[in-house]
Amino acid sequence: MSKVLFVNACMREADSRTLKLCREYLLSKEQVEEVDLTRLYLIPFNAEMVHKRIQLQEAKQWDDPLFDLSRQFCNAEEIVIGAPYWDLSFPAALKVYIEHVSVCDIVFRFTNHGTYEGLCKARHLTYISTSGGFIESDEDLGYEYMCGIAKMFGIPEVRYVIAQGLDIEGTDIEAQMDKARASFPAQ
Ligand SMILES: Cc1cc2nc3c(=O)[nH]c(=O)nc-3n(C[C@H](O)[C@H](O)[C@H](O)COP(=O)(O)O)c2cc1C
User: Fold this and answer.
1) Residue 103 near residue 28, CB atoms below 8 Å
2) What is the structure's pLDDT at 137?
3) For 20-70, what is each residue's pLDDT tens digit?
4) 65 alpha carbon to ligand 1 midpoint, in Å?
5) Cα–Cα distance for residue pair 3/22, rounded to 1 Å
6) Which of 121, 148, 130 is nearest to 4 (CA)?
7) Distance 60 CA to ligand 1 centre (A)
8) For 137, which DSSP code?
9) pTM for the full model?
């Protein structure tokens, strides 16, 4: 059984339909470590933080707590991200988390040709979401962005689970949730 990292960006917490799907999907997993972005209150990177991080990178102080989230992400054998569809993508807390994770020489490195080489262990990332309306996958900029990040970090496969139309009057919400459940990846 692989070590799963669950990144929880389901900001409505107990009321979140996205979180419900995530918890159901994770039932089949044995070792789940959770990063709860609703409680972490991460700060977006500012000048001081960027400066400090560069100093630590140059000193190769990889055990500094500033790199904890990045090292945790890098070492996970499987990544599950739960994030509702907000404003065509996902909650800002998830973008801020990615800023903290995206550290050169931990999750990726630059090659001599100036291209990225991913360093993450995970072989796949499962992106679980729900939306108020009905959307095409290429309109989900959160999913598209996460595909780019996975490529940069060296995660070869991104799986997409979404329940749509949950805020449209007359939608059979349970039927939409069931459709999403039916698309849970087998492993
Ligand atoms: C701040 C915010 C922004 C949203 N933006 C969109 C949107 O752009 N398109 C859409 O279809 N639904 C949008 N919705 C509706 C959510 O996608 C929908 O209610 C979703 O199921 C929420 O997930 P949750 O139950 O896990 O919180 C938005 C909801 C909120 C609270």
Assistant:
1) no
2) 72
3) 999 999 999 999 999 999 999 999 999 999 999 999 999 999 999 999 999
4) 33
5) 16
6) 121
7) 41
8) G
9) 0.97
